[in-house]
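in:
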């Protein structure tokens, strides 16, 4: 049985708005698809993400088996999700946010 994925429609709308804005600001990125075109888009998107996330750094020690699983998941995300490259830290943030969303009780009292 395949596990259903939840889609954050607000995040989708935000991403689409960002892409439309980028296309307006950088019309050269909307030319015929090419490796250079893709690299330019990825570079611009990574800059936006870096600018929007002024995160604090933490240090965490993890067993090698868990790091291997984390790296395998990051590789799967790179294959399945086009766009900025999925670094280990990106995957940790995403998985931690998902885990906290599941662990924290909602306002309706559900867990």
């Amino acid at each position: 049985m395949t596990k259903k994925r939840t889609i954050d429609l607000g995040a989708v709308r935000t991403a689409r708005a960002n892409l439309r804005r980028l296309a307006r600001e950088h019309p050269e990125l909307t030319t015929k698809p090419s490796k250079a075109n893709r690299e330019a888009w990825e570079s611009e998107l990574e800059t936006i993400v870096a600018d929007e996330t002024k995160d604090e750094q933490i240090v965490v020690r993890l067993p090698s088996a868990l790091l291997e699983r984390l790296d395998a998941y990051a590789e799967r995300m790179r294959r399945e999700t086009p766009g900025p490259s999925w670094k280990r830290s990106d995957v940790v943030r995403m998985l931690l946010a998902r885990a906290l969303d599941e662990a924290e009780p909602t306002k309706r009292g559900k867990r």
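note: The chain has two domains: 1-54, 57-111.
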